[in-house]
Structure formats: structure tokens, C-alpha cells
Prior knowledge:
Layout (H helix, E strand, L loop, with lengths): L1 H12 L8 E2 L10 E9 L1 H10 L1 E2 L2 E5 L5 H11 L4 E6 L7 E3 L8 E3 L25 E6 L4 E5 L9 E7 L10 H18 L1
Parallel strand pairs: 5-10
Antiparallel strand pairs: 1-2, 2-10, 3-4, 4-10, 5-6, 5-8, 6-7, 8-9
Amino acid sequence: MRRQLAMVFLATTALPALSAPVLWDVSAGGNGHYYDFVQASVDWDTALAAAAAASHLGQNGYLATVTSAAEQAFIFTAVSSQLAWIGGSDRETEGVWKWIDGPEAGQIFFGPGAPSGAYSNWGAAEPNNCCSGEDYLQFAFSGAGLWNDHGGPGNSGQLNSYLIEYGAAPVQVTLPGSLALIAMPLLALSYRRRV
Length: 195
């Protein structure tokens, strides 16, 4: 019997863990956000909608908005180095790359109007708007973490996985059990005095 239990234990612990969002911890220099790589074959608009429909620890998801070299490095090394959609697009105005969703929605990060020092990580000769139009931001182009413009009218059949970002989980304050034990009789006593 012990041998059977040991075999069951070993079999279940040897299974690969299910994918879960990865925290970029503030104590490690991060922003407290969670990131999740979703293995899929979808176009950018489908990825945008799926990310917005996702939630983790009470926080709504959005296609990742990568705003610093440190964030880029964290995602590439700790979350995924695979090709994936992230949340930038220039479909509104060609050459003006903006974050489409999340807290940075509407912010220009590349092209005319981008603030000085705005972060981008384009591959060589990118963005190039190839093939009559590429409008969406692709992460890990050439397997090196670089960015590429893809999808859109020039590559409407382009399907990728995608990266979801979730904001920092809200801090939950719980009252110690002893405080609740003290408060209940006091509330009951105040109710008795009113009656």
C-alpha cells in the first residue's frame, strides 16, 4: 500500500505545472504586475479581445504594454521568449505607434509625437510596414526579444500567441480574529442599550 501511495505521489508531482501568470515583484525592481503567455494561434484583434476578457486576482487583463528595457528583459527571460502579440498598433495613423489598451492606452511610444525617451525595442529595419501594411506589434521577433510590425492588411492571416499583463493586485486588509471577537460583543451591547 505504501508503495502504491509513493508511486501516486511521484506521478502527480512529476507532472508539469499548469501555466500561471508570473509576478514581476516590486522587491526585485519590478512593477508588481503579472504577465501571462497564452499559447494560441490568433490574429491581433482576437488577442486584444481575449486579453481584455481575462482577469487574475481581481485585475482585468490587457495585451502587455512594455515601457522599459527592464520590463522587456523580465518578460523575455521569465515569461516567454516566443513570438507573441503585445498591445501596440499604428492602425489609426501609419507610423504613429500607440499602446491600445491598459493604463498606457493612447500613449505614443514610437514615431511622430512620441515623448523623448519613450521605450521601444524594434528589430533592425523595423517597423517597415511591409507588404501593403503591417499594423500590430509582435514581441520576440527573430527569437531575440526584438519587436516587429506585422498583421494588418499586408499580413491579415498572421496568427500568433499573445502576452497578457495584469495590474498589481489590490492590497487586501484583513482584521485579526481577535479584533472581530472584541467588536462583536461591543456591537451587541450597543444594540441592547438602544432597545
